[in-house]
Amino acid sequence: YITLSHCWGQLQLITLTNSNIVTFQEGLEIRKLPKTFRDAIYVAQRLTVQYIWIDSLCIVQDSEDDRKRESALMMSVFAEAFCNIAATAA
């Protein structure tokens, strides 16, 4: 898998929440994602890497328990990735 490190900034990003988790599990339309996410997915595809980890899409943002649990694992998530993409500007 590849990870994406990005600054959330002032934009209202699409995020994983308890209310949309089933929709996320069914699949997201790539064209509806922010350009930074689409670009990262494109890089993953070009590198023939099947999975990408994006915090706002992989951590349930309105669950304090999930945020605490996943934040504790974030160092290993990034350390064990095939590649880390750093989006420093958009």
Structure overview:
The structure is a single chain. The protein has helices at 21-26, 35-46, 55-58, 64-79, and strands spanning 2-6, 52-54, 83-87. By secondary structure, it is α/β, with parallel strands linked by helices. The chain has one domain. The chain is globular and about 35 Å long. It holds the Pfam family HET. This is Heterokaryon incompatibility domain-containing protein. It comes from Hyaloscypha bicolor E.
Brief digest:
Residues 1-89 form the Heterokaryon incompatibility domain. The chain is an alpha/beta fold.
Task: Please tag this protein with its features.
single chain, 3-stranded parallel β-sheet, 3 strands, Heterokaryon incompatibility domain-containing protein, HET
Spatial strand arrangement across the major sheet: 2-1-3
Count the domains.
1
By DSSP, the count of extended strands is: 3
Please trace the helix and strand order, writing H or E for each element: EHHEHHE
**C-alpha-based Rg, rounded:** 13 Å
Please tell me what the overall shape is: globular
For the biggest sheet, the summary is: 3 strands, parallel
Number of helices: 4
Please give the share of residues in helix. 40-55%
Unreliable stretches (pLDDT < 50, length at least 5) are none
Fold topology:
Layout: E1 2-6, H1 21-26, H2 35-46, E2 52-54, H3 55-58, H4 64-79, E3 83-87
